[in-house]
């Protein structure tokens, strides 16, 4: 059974159709990278999968359940997700509290802190981090291999080449299926998974 299966998905916001008849499938042993220029519908599709915006479709199965039978919270519990605007996901007032909220285990938190040299930031308000630091913090969930799906919107945006390579290495060494939305050529050419263009 596919982890995610979507047939003929359409999204209309206001009077504008953003996504028209998109079909994708993701198995438990596959990674899929969705490419496309700005405005092509990548982030809209990302939000539709998370049930953040309404969509119509012929078929939509996620985690073995029909889209109508699964709620937003259940998708969130089983998914590591990172938004294009990284601070969107922050809920805590310090970095260490954010890490505890997402990872909940020092055996996951400590490797993150060491990998990205975050010790000096742990008592900071996450909203006061630089854009690159916010991006990295928003991706801390990729250290949790118990998630059923990594759903990442522009995960290498704002990052310097060193941290881009660190993120890519972690993603390549994690067996969790990944659905990644990006226009970053570095990521799209990394052989991380199959590339599907929305253009």
Q: Please, could you describe this protein's structure?
A:
The radius of gyration is 17 Å and the shape is globular. Strands 6-7-8-3-9 form a five-stranded parallel β-sheet. Strands 2-1-4-5 form a four-stranded antiparallel β-sheet, with helices on one face. The protein has helices at about 40-50, 70-80, 95-100, 105-115, 130-140, 160-170, 185-190; strands at about 5-15, 15-25, 30-35, 60, 65, 80, 150-155, 180, 195. It is about 30% helix and about 25% strand. It is α/β, with parallel strands linked by helices and about 200 residues long. It has one domain: P-loop containing nucleotide triphosphate hydrolases (Rossmann fold, 3-Layer(aba) Sandwich). The mean pLDDT is about 90. The longest helix is centred in the C-terminal third of the chain and has 12 residues, at about 160-170.
Strand order of the largest sheet: 6-7-8-3-9
Shape: globular
Cα-atom radius of gyration: 17 Å
Number of strands: 9
Count of runs of 4 or more consecutive helical residues: 7
> Architecture, according to CATH?
3-Layer(aba) Sandwich
The CATH topology is: Rossmann fold
Helices and strands, in N-to-C order?
EEEHEEHEHHHEHEHE
| Structural class determined from secondary elements | alpha/beta
- The unreliable regions are none
Question: Average pLDDT value?
Answer: 92
CATH class: Alpha Beta
- Termini, distance in Å? 28 Å
Oligomeric status of the shown chains? single chain
The CATH homologous superfamily is named P-loop containing nucleotide triphosphate hydrolases
Percent helix, as a range, is: 25-40%
